[in-house]
Amino acid sequence: MADYKGTLNLPETAFPMKADLARREPEMLAWWEERRTYERLREIARGRPPFILHDGPPYANGAIHIGHAVNKVLKDIIVKARTLDGHDAPYVPGWDCHGLPIEHAVEKARGKEARALDARAFRQACREFALEQVDVQRRDFVHL
Question: Where are the domains of the chain?
Fold first, then answer.
């Protein structure tokens, strides 16, 4: 079999052949955090015409999934495009921390114990569960 590699005039690059994202992503996130990238972009945009995307929040009832990813990526594209278009376009995430999905998740997690709780204790259990899930989702959304 002929070796054509030597016949190709390809550009040379310092980019690695493999992205090695498991190692590089934490480095990039730390780099952005150290430089306060988002805060600096917000400062630059101050005083520009506002653009607010009202993000329909996800339920805080479990780990993120592909539906969350598609939703957040599309909204991120819109916000960034409006920022590049000269607007003050903050991204303000939110969560839906009440309702049946959270109640169902608490009942499922606690089993029979959930049925024995009075209304106040059950609401408190739902609140604690929702806040835990908000923290989990907030950390996971950074990686999208």
Answer: 21-143
